[in-house]
Amino acid sequence: MTNESDIAEIGEARPDPNALRGPDDHLNQDWIERLRAHLRAGEEHDVAEMMEPLHAADAGDVLEALEQDERVALVQMLGDKFDYLALTEVDDNVRTDLIEELPAEDVARGVATLDNDDAVYILEDMDAGDREEILAQLPAFERLSLKRSLDFPEDSAGRRMQTDFIAIPPFWTVGQTIDYLRVEKDLPDEFFQLYVVDPGYRVLGTIPLDKFLRSKRQVRIENLMNHDVLTVEATEDQEEAARDFERYDLVEIGVVDENKRLVGVLTVDDIVDVIHEEATEDIKLLGGVGDEELSDNVLSTVRSRAPWLVVNLITAMLASFVISLFNGTIEQMVALAALMPMVASMGGNAGTQTMTVTVRALATRDLDRGRVRRLITREVTGGFLNGCIFAVLIGAVTWLRYASPSLGIVIGLAMIINMVAAGSAGILIPLALNKLKVDPAIASSVFVTTVTDVIGFFAFLGLAGLWFGLF
Question: Each residue of 413-440: pLDDT tens digit?
Fold first, then answer.
C-alpha cells in the first residue's frame, strides 16, 4: 500500500545523478560537483567517462560552469578525446582565456579535426600572433584554406562558409556521380545539394539530393540541374545571407568570390547561429550594453555600460533644464511635481514600444516606402488614441485626488501631446538614424527617451502655467 510520502516522492521530479541536466533543463549541480572531484583527484578515466557521451553544446555548458583552472585541467586531461567543437558553444571570453592557457600544438591538433567554418569561428577572435602560431602547426592545405576564410571581412559569408562541398561537371551522368561519391574519401560529412560547375569553378546549376537520388543512372547532370542558381558573395554580410535563407526557404547556398567562382557553402545550421547572434546583438544594443556577455568580469561590464550611461546623464540634464524653466510654476502648485513624472513615463514607454517595432522592421528590411508611410500614420494615430484613453483615466484620477477638474484637464491634454510625440519619435528617429548610416539599435532609445521627457515636462508644466495663470 502506497503512503502519502511515497506519493509525494513519485510526484516530485528528481534529477538523475548520472544525468547532466535536471527536469528543468538546467545543469545538474551534483553532476558538476562529481566532475570537479574527479578533476581534483586527477582521475582521467572517470572524467573521460563522464564527458564522452556529451554533445558539443552540452560540453560547452560544462566548460562555462567550471572555473578557469578547472577548464584547462579538463581539456588537458581529456587530450585527444576533447571535442574542440565545444569551444564554439561558449562565450568569447571563456574561449579566449582557455585557448591562451593551452599549448599551440594542442589547439592546432583540435582545430584540425573541425570543419572549416568552426575552426574559423575559434581562431578569428584570437590575437594575430597566437593565431599565426596555431596555423603554423597545421598542414599546408588546411592552413591556406583557413587563412583564406580569415581574410574575408568579419561577420561576412566568407567567414561563416564551409570550404568542403561537392562540385561536378555538367557532362557527367547520375551513375558516374554516384560512383564518384562512393569512392571519393575527401567529401563533406554532411551535404544537401550538388553544385554543377564549369572548369573555372563558376556555378552552372545545382541539384538537390532528393531530386538526384530519384533519377536514373543514365540521366545527364546538365539535364537534371536547376539553372536558376542562388549564390551569395563571400564578402556579403552574414545577416544579408541569413535573409536569403529566410526569404527562399533554403537549407544550403553556394558562396562565390569576386570572380564568381565557388569557394564554399553556407548551411542552415550555420545560419541559425547567425540569426541568433544578430538578434542577440540587436537586443543588447537596444539596452545599451554593447557586446557584453555573462562571462564578463566587473570591469568589462562597467566599461561596456558606462558610455551610454553618460549619454543618458546628458539627456537627463536636458530634461532637468526644461523643468528648471518652470520652477516658479511648480512652487505655486506643488501637485505638479508629483504628477509630471507620470506624463514623461507614459510617453517614454509608448515611444520605446514604437521604436522597438521600427528597429526590428529595419533590421529585417521589411520597410519599403509604402510601408513606412503606413507605419508613420499608424503610430501617430495610435499615439493619439492611446493618449485620449489615458488622458481620460489619469484626468479622472487627478480630479478625484486633488479635487481639481482643471488640473485633470491639463494633465489629460499633456498626456495626449506626449503620446503623439512618442509615436512620432519612436518611428522617425530610427528612420533618420538609419538614413544617416547610424545603427538605429544603438542610439534610438536615448533620443526617443529625451524627446518624450522634454516634450512631456514642457507640455504639462507649460499648459499648467497658462491654464492657471502662474507665469
Answer: 999 999 999 999 999 999 998 888 888 8
| CB 48 within 8 Å of CB 81 | yes
Q: Is residue 222 part of a domain?
A: yes
List the alpha helices (DSSP H) in 21-91.
Answer: 29-41, 44-51, 56-65, 68-78
In this structure, are 374 and 347 located in the same domain?
A: yes
Is residue 289 a part of any domain in this protein?
A: no
The CATH code of the domain that includes 150 is: 1.25.60.10
Q: Compute the distance between CA of residue 451 and CA of residue 429 in angstroms, rounded to an integer.
A: 10
> How many Cα atoms are found within 13 Å in the side-chain-facing hemisphere of 113?
13
DSSP annotation of 450 = H
How much is the CA Rg of the chain, to the nearest whole Å? 30
Strand order in the sheet with 231-233: 231-233, 252-256, 262-267
Nearest to 271 by CA among 406, 178, 157, 362: 157
pTM, entire model: 0.72
CB 265 within 8 A of CB 162: yes
Q: What is the CATH number of the domain that holds 206?
A: 3.10.580.10
Compute the distance between CA of residue 456 and CA of residue 228 in angstroms, rounded to an integer.
Answer: 55
Contacts of 15 (CB under 8 A, 6+ apart): 21, 22, 23, 28, 30
C-alpha grid cell, residue 84: 574542440
Task: Confirm if 205 and 170 have CB atoms less than 8 A apart.
Answer: yes
H or E element in which residue 368 lies: none
SS3 content of the chain, % helix, strand, coil (to 5): 65, 10, 25
One-letter amino acid at 336 equals L
| Sequence-separated (6 or more) residues with CB below 8 Å from residue 85 | 56, 114, 118
Grid coordinates in use for 429? 528617429
Give CA–CA dist 443/3, Å, rounded: 62
Instruction: Measure the CA–CA gap between 212 and 218, rounded to whole angstroms.
Output: 12
Residue 251 structural domain: 167-269
Quick: pLDDT tens for 28-68: 899 999 999 999 999 999 999 999 999 999 999 999 999 99
Q: Which of 123, 154, 185 is where one domain is finished?
A: 154
Q: Supply φ then ψ for residue 470, to 5 degrees.
A: -90, -10
